[in-house]
Amino acid sequence: MLMQTHEARLSALREELKKRDLAGFVVPISDEHMSEYVGDYAQRLAWLTGFGGSAGSAAVLAHKAAIFIDGRYTVQVREQVDEKLFEYQSVPATSPAKWLAANAQEGDRIGYDPWLHSRGWVKTTGDLLAEAGAELVAVQSNPLDAVWADRPQPSAAAAAIHADITSGRNSAEKRGEVGEWLKENKLDAAVISALDSVAWLLNIRGSDIVHTPVALSYVLAHADGTAELFIAPEKVTPELQQHLGNAVTLRDRADFEPALGGLEGKRVAVDPEYGVAAISQLLEDGGATPVAKRDPTILARAVKNPVEAQGHRDAQATDGAAVSRFLCWLEANGPSGEVDELAAAAKLLEFRQADSGLVDTSFDTISAAAGHAALPHYKVDEDSNIPIPPSSIYLVDSGGQYVRDGSAGTTDITRTVWIGPDEPSAEMKDRFTRVLKGHIAIAMITFPEGTNGGQLDSLARQFLWAAGTDYAHGTGHGVGSFLSVHEGPQRIAKISGAQGGTLEPLQAGMILSNEPGYYKAGEFGIRIENLVLTEERRIEGADTLPDGGTWLGFENLTWVPIDRTLIEPALLTADERGWVDKYHADTRALLAPRLDGEALNWLERHTQPL
């Protein structure tokens, strides 16, 4: 019946396209802010195809259609999307643009929603279609929305104040820096369209996107340090008005398009990654000049101030206690074979919710048993849920959003544990220890200022490479401060054609994940993830760097025992063993006062020296 439903939806979309004289249409997972996670109202790809992943797109023609996903979702797409309706296409081997150029007929008009794509995407796709004799056409309204009868409305929840004492800096200071940046670049204004940038700049938060505490809105920042906030009136409280002050003008979100058209003669910065094509087009139509410049808040937001850094430490201690209680419970109950993936995820949430500071989880928990652990972005549901088998590996990747008493932070942790009663195989211990060695290499590295994540990435992979294996994801991503769990611009990953932040020099104050992994398809997966804070390092007798820069390293933020059952001590050097023992001693010292009973006993057992 599910397949008939999606077949009917696809048929209805095709009929709507025919009415509009369109031969095809592109459906991304996106919203008008180019968000990674989107509200229910923007889940167009899921509605049309049934696909539940967080990255992907579809292209629909009159007689064929395709869904485009990367290697993370190869298995999931086959479980959720009917191949009779949508061909499975793998990115980056192909793309919607390449597929459409190969399959569209000469003269075809292919529609796209300019509020869901970047200008760069429009240029690339339009050029490819033109070579094939077809045309890319911006639609005035989304044809999929016209046939989505029960489409949810955007959230009407009120925006919330993120107090200055929690953020560490007031909004006026941040807006002043943006104003100075605009003057330096001979610009009059900047469109701030990324939701986490709006939240950071104005010290506000919200609940409009699941897992990410942001409010649906736009900001137009001006060179004099003032700003206009475009937000639905029902989301504005008197307290929010008072918090924003007179220098921030509140305007209805519906006024955003006319406001862009009213900037004649102005030079306006638009982020090429987060500014949708419609924004630049509206500016041009109104006589303004859009200038492709990175959102001036992005780098400032990535470099955490001391208050934000302490908020992360506080959140990590709280979260570490909750995850430790869960792993204690799992060790006792997992070997029965009666705990399934959904039950384990629910139990972990229960332990987190015992703390009143938890606002939300920071993403959907990856609760993965046996072969499912070999899928790096596995998302358990009622259909895929399996019991955790005795004598197997279980992987759990999860996090929380915490606020309490002037302190706030976002956590993200992965632990891979052995479920007894038997012992893990030699292969499992070898692979786990190689992943651990890579994790330790990142944790221990000292590097000169100016180093980027692409230069560090091979440190984490070297021990797997020595065994002839690798993992197909990045080693580390940035993390927000009570904001998005995935934050740029910094990243630790291979340098490739799609840089994705790997060339961004790391700076003191940036938070990253450290998460190498190993995945044996159909059998088991391993990932060890902590968050780390980039910090300055003083090295006695160190040479002065040529550019006068400083030395950097990482402060560990995440404190939960690493499963010693899966470690092969003979593969570790003396320094690596020392790191593990110190990590466990520090974990015990931090968490012991927060635990009691069996959880405290569990902590003591699992933090003993190797």
List keywords for this structure.
single chain; 610 residues; alpha+beta; six-stranded mixed beta sheet; 28 strands; 21% strand; globular
How would you sum up this structure in a few lines?
It is globular and about 65 Å long. The chain has 610 residues and is of the alpha+beta class.
Q: What does this protein structure show overall?
A:
The protein is globular. Helices cover 35% and strands 21% of the residues. Helix 14 crosses helix 15 (341-353). It has 610 residues and is α+β, with helices and mostly antiparallel strands. A hairpin with a 2-residue loop joins strand 18 (400-404) and strand 19 (407-410). The mean pLDDT is 95. The chain starts with a helix and ends with a helix. The longest helix is centred in the middle third of the chain and has 28 residues, at 306-333. It has a six-stranded mixed sheet, with helices on both faces.
